[in-house]
Amino acid sequence: MLVIRSGRHPHEVMLLLLILMAGFNGLSAAGRTGNTVLGSLSPPWLLMFYAGLLVGAGMAIVGVVLPGLKGPVVEAFGLGVFTLPLLGYGAAVFVATGWRGLLTAGSFAVVMSIANVWRMFQVRREFRAARAGAVATHTTRHVEGS
Asked: What keywords appear on the UniProt entry (predicted)?
């Protein structure tokens, strides 16, 4: 049986938990943000931002712990879900403050987005390799989640 475990790195999981908590805390206290850029968003956009963080990070964490090939696919989808609000935040910081702001406050959002996209491509490559190996060895029934 083939088990993909590349998504279970403590560093990645802790960052996902941090983003999950940021989404939860932001939804709990959406009107009381200490950030100028987020504070300038209208309530529906602010709630969508925090909901995207919460749902995406939650899905990614679930994907990390799911067995077989389902886990990395769910993880990659979750990463994609919360990459969109992060990129939006990075763009908002750039519009509000220019390059100076993007290199400071917006850098986490942009770098995290790049890391998410990188991980999504990594999952795609691993998924294809696992499926190809299972097909080549006629063991597709032994690959969990396929």
From this structure: Membrane, Transmembrane, Transmembrane helix
Q: Could you report the per-residue pLDDT of 92-104, keeping only the tens digit for each?
A: 888 888 888 778 7
Residue 46's nearest CA partner among 59, 62, 35 is 35
Provide the number of structural domains found in the chain.
1
What does the pLDDT average to over 128-145? 70
DSSP 140: G
3-state secondary structure of 143: strand
Q: Is 62 inside any structural domain?
A: yes
- Residue 130, judged by CB atoms within 10 A of its CB (0-12, 13-18, 19+), counts as buried
Give domain status of residue 1, yes or no: no
User: Does 34 reside within a domain?
Assistant: no
Q: Is residue 1 packed enough to be buried (19+ CB in 10 Å), middle (13-18) or exposed (0-12)? A: exposed
For residue 122, give its domain range.
10-28+39-141
Check if the beta carbon of residue 22 is closer than 8 Å to that of residue 16: no
Residue 55 CA to residue 66 CA, distance in Å, equals: 16
Instruction: Output the pTM of the full model.
Output: 0.81
**20 is a domain residue:** yes
